[in-house]
User: Fold these one by one.
Assistant:
Number 1:
Amino acid sequence: MKASTRLRKLLESSNTEYILEAHNALSATIAESSGAKGLWASSLTLSASYGLRDNSEMTMTQVLDVLESMTERVEVPILFDGDTGYGQFSHFQQLVRKLCAREIAGVCIEDKIFPKTNSFLQSEQQQLAPVDEFCGKIRAGKDIQPDPDFVVVARTEALITGLDMSAALERAERYAEAGADAILIHSKAPTFNEVHEFMTQWNRSVPVICVPTTYYSTPEEAYDRAGISLVIWANHLLRAAVAAMQRVANQISTSGTARGVEDEIVPVKELFRLQDTEGLSESERVYGQVSPWRAILLAATRGSGLDDLTRDRPKCMIPISGVPAIEKQLQHMRAEGIRDIAVVRGYAPEAMTTEGVQFFDNPNWQETGELGSLATARPFLKGDVVIAYGDILYKRYILHELMASDAPVTVVVDGSRAFLESDQTGDLVRVSQPPPEGYDENDYRLVGIGSSISRDDAHGEWIGLARLRGEGTPWFSDTLEEILSESGGIECDMATALHRMALEGRIPIRVIYIQRDWIDINSVADVARGNTN
Ligand code: SPV
Ligand code: MG
């Protein structure tokens, strides 16, 4: 149901309803959660919270901004205290259009002259607008409103400015005839008597609203008995906030510490709740704004046989077609949605100028081997994580296929047997089956990897790209820690860990076969190849 329709229902309800003041999105949320069925966007409290006077000092743009933030956060209808309608009839028409566009349920305008003053300030000196002029303003608003249910409340300040009851009644009747959906009869009397008298003489052509700021002690039944449709508690949330803020500010200023106030204020997590932080986490799960993926790039080594090229930089910083090799891999990772990336540095860390990654340092890279480097990046070794050598280059589809795998542990293996063409080989791999001739959907499982696999037994070569997820990650981590503690952290490579896991066989390690489409930068020849690719 539209907010405006809901406000109409409150006005038409058979008993007296109430609405609560709110001056920003936070107080609107608090009022709504308390059970208030509607909100009063008060000119007094909106302007006060802006550090301005309630003398038409807040501009239409400023109030619309606040109203927009309020209506975005609450479901209950908002009745906006529109003062004199921001000028003559044509300004009021603009206001009505803008309020309808923001789904504000209704506006209340008062029969004073711009710039108005709050009803409780020098009220007797305030001038009322001529009745005909104010009726014209009401008609102008009603004629223009794009939402037929939008509520225009006409407020008469007759009693506030010291006019008598008959003047108040006459004005109210004329405003109802002009099309007002409700009358707000304002009074500054200390008791309900004045408004009560108005009600006894009122023709009841439209619902009546009152604002018992000064006659707040009236018993609730009195409004009902008198036929009041809606009571506005017009400023209570801001007054409550001011009292609390003054108490806490003074206490901290006097004592110099916040120790004593902690019990009197809400915990920070209450602010998070009111901001709907939980809702954001939910959306992140739905829309995948936050990538669940991490990567650790092992980039600690200098590389052998690359002396000239690595005099003052690690091998992953060697430019390939003008771009450091590692940057090419990072581009692929970001394109695949991997945002949290760790790079383990070792040799010449100062030459690693890569941006947007978190560095971990392994100063003992020469002794520890890959697992020692990996161990420095332990905080990244959780959840869904890609582990990659920093010095490999590959086509992007390879990473894409790896990210599509749902296995707990997946490794990418080049099944082309290109290693037979070179005497320098990386980690040879034995798989449950040789690579397929063409496309197939079989699952391939890692049987063994590393130095124990002979060239004859090997089905391919691990390219230095693996992914862990689910139960695969703690399994790998445990294996890593086990190997490090056995070896004292010396000379252990990734293949040692993967081989041990394959032998243990607790969960199949999936192999994704590729055919070439990658290189590693292990020799000057490789670099030359990279530059020509
Ligand atoms: C307001 O809340 O701004 C009102 C009511 O207009 S009063 O302050 O009583 O004028
Ligand atoms: Mg006001």
Number 2:
Amino acid sequence: MKFYIKTFGCQMNVHDTRRIEEILVKAGHQPTQESREAQLAMVNSCTIRQKPWHKAISETGRLRKGKLKGSGENLLVGLVGCVAQQEGENVFDLLSHVDFVVSPDNYAQLPQIIDDLIRQKKHIAVTGFSEGNAEDFLSIEHVSENEVSAFVTIMKGCQERCRYCIVPTVRGPERHRGAEQILNEIRHVVSLGVREITLLGQKVNAWQEGERRFFDLLMEIDKVAGLERLRFTSPHPRHMTPEVIDCFGQLRTLCEAIHLPVQAGANTTLKRMGRRYTREDYLNIVERLRKARPDISISTDLIIGYPGETEDDFRETLSLIEEVGFSSAFSFKFSPRPFTPAEKLNDDVPEDVKSARLAAVHELVNAQETAFRNGLRNSELEILVEGEGRMKSQLSGRARNHQIVNFVSAHPLSQMIGKLITVRVTDIHPNSLEGEIV
Ligand code: SAH
Ligand code: SF4
Ligand code: F3S
């Protein structure tokens, strides 16, 4: 069967889509980028806020309708990902056009589920969480020629229970993957040509196995021959230990860029969010990170208009942003989610106030992002060549600080892919930089 997957949500979902593809290809199915061609269409969904939930749900309808207007062949429509776990069988009452629902810990069963659907043609819902044993963490077996970066899952689920967050409900309890298995997967993908690894987990820096802590793991991964770059996402400020911070100054592969969600700048708000660190803790971590690695770029996530957020609280968010100077930030209005304690709080910040605060944050963050990028002009950046560039005769790569750089190359992509080169930044465009090889 030809299958199509539309993905919403965070890097975890992006990585899961990759694994679903591998599972289905192994079972004899073929991926297609054209939803109209597919006999099997899936929406890999996100429910972190209400908007992505809506988007995912409506996408299932769009796929069904698009197909009916098309060739009219039988089409199986599935909802997978975080909404699948949240809604389970309810989806069939909500959406009569959905044939199956499979949550993230159950993707290995997809080939069987599809066979059953073809034979019996009735609704199937498979949800629930795995134990977290070695076999529950699926490794990537193959990488394509152009894949120079890969994600490696080091933990599933989250038990932090920040009061606004649905992730612990939809991704389940925290299960940490064994270090040997993590290292084996990394060695394997590096042997296939991958140069950059991003470790994945909702509280990635809380990883541990017996006495081994996250920084031990970073130090071991750093020694993997052939690996050039290491990143991790998302760390929780509460687990940014001095040892993890020191790694930024010590490890060859660890990139000088960190996405460290802060959520809010006022201690009263952080407390009501259940974040378990203070504004001062966060600023202290930032200071120590910059001491360890002066050129580190720091990005963040912010929630605007959390229940009870006063004008003064909000000003503390603005002043924290000013104090840190982020290279970029994702900021969204608070969105009440089912099964979370914050859902029961009075969502008392009026919509127009939320909008005004969000606009103020966007303005400040955009100015910081522009300043950060303008500061890169004339600097020399090491880039990992990833693909074709913006214009003909250009290739493109990514700097250690995540910036995309286009440059003119005398050699074709096939000779340059996966290479590390140094470029001098000559121009700054809205979504990329331009550089010349040094
Ligand atoms: N594990 C990561 C974040 C995962 S969710 C961490 O703890 O930092 C990604 C982002 O979505 C969060 O950082 C937060 O900013 C946002 N988010 C989560 N729940 C939300 C909600 N109910 N309303 C608005 N934003 C939310
Ligand atoms: Fe959600 Fe908090 Fe866990 Fe992040 S750490 S996934 S915000 S509960
Ligand atoms: Fe969304 Fe699930 Fe990620 S809810 S943010 S896709 S873990």
